[in-house]
Amino acid sequence: MHLYAHISSLISDFFSDELKLEIESSKFQFTPTKKEFDGDYTLVVFPLVRHMKKKPEECGEIIGQYLLERSDYVEAFNVVKGFLNLSLSTTFWRESLELVSDPEKLTYPDTNKGKLVLEYSSPNTNKPLHLGHIRNILIGWSMYRILQRVGYEVIKTQIVNDRGVAICKSMLAWKKFAGGETPESSGKKGDHLIGEYYVTFDKALKEEYEQWQTGAEAEKIFREKNDGKIDRNAFFKKWKNEYFNEKSQLGAEVRQMLRDWEDGDPNVIALWEKMNAWVYAGFDETYAGLGVDFDKTYFESDTYKLGKDIVEEGLQKGIFYKMEDGSIWVDLSDSGMDQKLLLRSDGTSVYITQDLGTARIRYEDYKMGSMVYVVGNEQDYHFQVLFEVLKLLGEPYADGLLHLSYGMVDLPTGKMKSREGTVVDADDLMAEVVEIAAANVEDRGAMDELSEEERREAIRRIGMGALKFQLLKVNPKKRMVFNPEESVDLQGHTGPYIQNAYVRILSVLRKAGDFDQDHLSTQDYFRISGDERELIQMLLSYREVIERAAGEFDPAHLAGFSYQLARAYHRFYHDHQIIRAESEAARNFRLKLSVAVAAALEDSLSLLGIAMPVRM
Asked: Which one, 14, 65, 499, 580, has the greatest CB density within 10 A?
């Protein structure tokens, strides 16, 4: 911010000229002045006290007087304990408005912070994308826009989990129960169709398990493991995974299918390729609806092979060890973790195996300095292990890894469960918020002037803006509840509320007629109101907000900024005349201010992946 640089330079001059000291500008801490005190910006004096060897109040008085005498920006000051509150001149506010009125000031100069690979989405091919995926995707896409803005060359990637036990469950269920059903014959999206057979498998397994529990073998296991001391239902509820791995006929068929796939069985591979193709077509349609894309897609069916080779390398170097059954492990106890399986005894890989391969392939492709994984917090431990293993292997990128961990999304009715078919499908959710937005528009009758195509696009932007903002306004680390009805509230902390402020400004500018904002004179406007100063302060802080969002990997900072800016503009609009202002200078100032606010609102929401409508 140019004010901070200006004042910091003067304070540095003070210490250099008066006290013969060189003080780093980082020692000068500024914040907007709290509303209960007089002033616009506050300098925190406490860090300077030891250099001046005076009481905080005296230090504030001395520095304040020095600034008052030497800066055209400072017109008054007061000191409250260790805080120097500066009141700024109309010269500062007019110059600041010129600064924020230039759209180029909202962007960064050309900088190069290096290459950063960003992984997000990364779905399984056994089910469609759901609400949890949407949060992942939106966080990833927004961080791509934000990191790109601050100077990174960002490579957007996903790793498609297209192999493994879960995928084989869907494949086996389709083979057993589908009767040849296809997306074309059923009229369903391919990912939806395959997801239904994933649920079908779980139901079939449950039926098989319930029948097995009534038999003599189940009774024998129950007696042997528990001596009949715990509730039978409680035991078998917990023993479901062991049943799948040790006793289930369906489980045995799934494991055999996975082995056949890894052995290259042509019939299994053909089925796998056919079903995956259906899913990819469905994913692409959903991604298009969300307005996101990828620079590179990796597939676990490719990367797991390299992962196996890396595990063998680590074994030969003595980094990993082999158990008697042939499985390969790593001991991470020195790093506060435990032993981790890297390769099963039958030679099949686990999740971390392919993650090792994927990481190395990405480095070979891009030679990136950083790699960020957008993955839910249920995988926190997995990534701690992955990063530690990569360090043990001496991978050159191992120090630049970050897990952008985010909390799960619940519904007002509770948790979602994929296997039980209780998830909220991404496509259905997008359609629902757009439908709610359309109903709101019908009630208001605000788009009657638009063509049918323009109207549909505006409604889509409102609905998708509601969905995206609601999922991004919460710190990624926090678990959240998503309510579609609340997300489209024009009066709430929502995307449509911010879009409405932007549309309101467009309406003001249309009513103002043609004007050239570069030639709107504001020199005779002296009575700049508190509301106007607040808006300019917020605009001046915009770049810092972007930097904070990038540094903390948290798009919620931008969501909070855009909401507060929209709220401040709604209040300003309500309390001040713009087109019919008290003078031409006031009119010009407020028009320029409105243009600047609109540009910041549009830009900040674009960094969240949200487009603005022109009518609401």
From this structure: 499
Q: What does 47-61 look like in DSSP terms, one character per residue? A: GGHHHHTS-HHHHHH
Token readout for 221 is 């296991």
Helix H or strand E segment including 69: helix 56-70
Largest CA distance in the chain: 95
* Residue linked to tokens 């032993």: 339
DSSP state of 27: G
Rounded CA-CA distance 276/615 in Å is: 41
Using CA atoms, how far residue 163 sits from 26, 152, 525, in Å, is 52, 32, 67
* pLDDT tens per residue, range 263-291: 999 999 999 999 999 999 999 999 999 99
> Which tokens sit at 598?
């609109």
Instruction: Count the neighbouring beta carbons within 10 Å of the beta carbon of residue 565.
Output: 23
Tokens of 244: 């799948």
Cβ atoms of residues 556 and 472 within 8 Å: yes
In tens, the pLDDT along 366-388 reads 999 999 999 999 999 999 999 99
pTM: 0.91
Ordered structural domains, the chain, with CATH:
2-88 (3.30.1360.70), 165-272 (no CATH), 426-606 (1.10.730.10)
Are the CB atoms for 566 and 497 separated by under 8 Å? yes
Task: Give the number of other CB atoms < 10 A from CB of residue 447.
Answer: 21
Residue, of 506 and 350, whose pLDDT is higher: 506
C-alpha to C-alpha distance for 455 and 434, rounded to whole angstroms: 12
Q: Beta partners for 158?
A: 297
* Rounded Cα gap, residues 533 and 578, in angstroms: 15
